[in-house]
Amino acid sequence: MSKVSNRTKIATALVGALALASSNLVVANPLADVQKADSKIHADAAASQQKVDKYFDQAQDMLFEYGSVADERESLKSYNDYVAGLVADQQKTMDAIQTDINGVDRLRQGVVPLMFKMVDALEQFVQLDLPFNTQVRTERVENLKTLLNTAEVTLAEKYRLILDAYSIEREYGNFVAVNTGKLAIDGKEVLVDFFQLGRVALYAQSLDQKTAWMYDADAKTWNKLEDSYLRDITKGIRIARKQGALDLFALPIPAAETAQ
What we know:
Layout: H1 3-128, H2 134-148, H3 155-172, E1 176-185, E2 188-197, E3 201-206, E4 212-216, E5 221-224, H4 230-240
Antiparallel strand pairs: 1-2, 2-3, 3-4, 4-5
């Protein structure tokens, strides 16, 4: 074989090798592009999944928060309804109180004259009653008359004190009492024991137990008792002072139609 032929073969072999190499390069480029695209798709899918997971978590948080807000709203609504009921009830109470306040002036207009009449009636009663504890009872009435014209004492307190005075007067008729004092007889003052049988009768006996009198409410005088009553009145005084045992004693009393 000639040198030319060998050179030709060598050249041909080189050209073939270059062609094959070129062919391999052309095939390799599209495959790399596909691999790159596939990697990008996976990366984008992963990123999208992360976004989806993030939005899902946010949606779950918002749903939970919404549920909490809804529950709180229902709780607040129930509480507001309860408070509204209380307010309505309080308003009714306030309206009733206001009605009472509006009637206070009318009540005051009626009570004040009544209290003055009650004190006047009490004063007349003391003057017409049996003359026992006269000074104390008269002072009590005078204090009430002064009290009615005192601005520092409330209307309710004035009324209460008047009722207390009436209660005291009522109790006087329920007990037996003995008090030592002076009795004016025939222009002279005599030391005596006043013996009170409630409001039925009032007696007086000298301290030497030798003379006794009974008060005449109609004539407003003291009438001398017969000596036969001295022992009984002495017994009654001792019993009232708890110096003797309970026992019967006989004393004259005013007739029923004239008794005070």
